[in-house]
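Give me the fold.
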Amino acid sequence: LAADDAQFVIEFSRDLENWERGTALYLGSEDQANGISLRSWRAPEPVSFNQPMKFARLVLTARP
């Protein structure tokens, strides 16, 4: 799977208004019968019940 004309950035937020670039750990991919490839990532920090919720988004942009 390749997309030379696109790039992506992972961003994280605690309030859904202020976003910061971050990194994510790649877990792997799984090809589906319908031709779709599912790719999985996770945040590098473990989830903790005593910390505030954290949101993630994937920002895709076209390369010039």
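The first strand starts at residue 6 and ends at 13.
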